[in-house]
Amino acid sequence: MEQHPLQYFKDLITKGYIVKERTKFFFSQDFGKIVKMDMQNDLIECASTDAQLEDSPIEIKTITFADYLQDKATIEMINSLDQIDNRLLDFEDEKRQILFLKTIYKTFNSLILYAEQIEEVSKHPFIADLLKRLKAEIIDRYAVDDDTISQKQIHLSSSHQISNKLQWMGKSKVLISLFYDLYSNVENGGEPLIKATKDQVKNFLLNNFIEKDGQPLSPSSIDTLLTPSKEDKRALKGDRIDTSKLKDKK
Predict the structure, then answer these.
(1) Do 121 and 215 have their domain in common?
(2) Is residue 249 part of a domain?
């Protein structure tokens, strides 16, 4: 199976690979002879000489884990951009290219959010910054905007929007289909159970619910599922919440 273009960052942020990178740092042979290893302060001191000079003095160089990790993440950022470019070349259909980019954007948003909230990762703010830079570069390069709520809006530490929202633990399609049935009452063929416009329902969902992974609901998905002609996109009967008995019969 082909590796996800952001796999390095997914592993680093969500699978605790920072611990593995730290181990690699302290036992790497890339820096020359290690003369001091300070695990408490996450740094090493290495001795090196100028190979071109026979009697060159020994130079002691201090390298921090943060510097090492930032260099590694920067390289991986460039690799991720190359992989995304190559994946897009595989799609001849422009619609598939756009769909792929929007899926990548959603992954970006999750990773940035977690990078700023997970304590072990947030110690290294350059990780979130690199992801933001990479996402901005992709948007600028391909002129395909991210139609989900902006990262600034879903930042937990700077906004109460997420914490005040209800977290839907089921399929988002089921939730949106439920509200479609409530305001359209198509299932009963009668009057709606909620008197509202499509835009009112969309805004209510966006302002009051988040998905089970903490992500905001997708505005484009809500638009699709609230469109009367898109019945094939809504939740199937087996998953759908039955609203047929909710109508007050007088």
Answers:
(1) no
(2) no
The last residue of a domain, from among 105, 135, 157: 157
Residue 46 and residue 33 in contact, taking contact as beta carbons nearer than 8 Å: yes
The neighbour count for residue 121, using CB atoms within 10 Å, is 21
* 241, part of any domain: no
Rounded Cα distance, 102 and 208, in Å: 23
Task: Tell me the per-residue pLDDT of 80-118, one tens digit each, with 9 for 90 and over.
Answer: 999 999 999 888 888 999 999 999 999 999 999 999 888
Give the global pTM: 0.57
**Six-digit token pair at 32?**
């020359």
Lookup result for tokens 């593995």: 20
Structural domains in the chain (count): 2
Tokens of 206: 């966006």
Residues 209 and 153 in one domain: no
d(CA 247, CA 148): 34
Nearest alpha carbon to residue 151 among 118, 124, 199, 113: 113
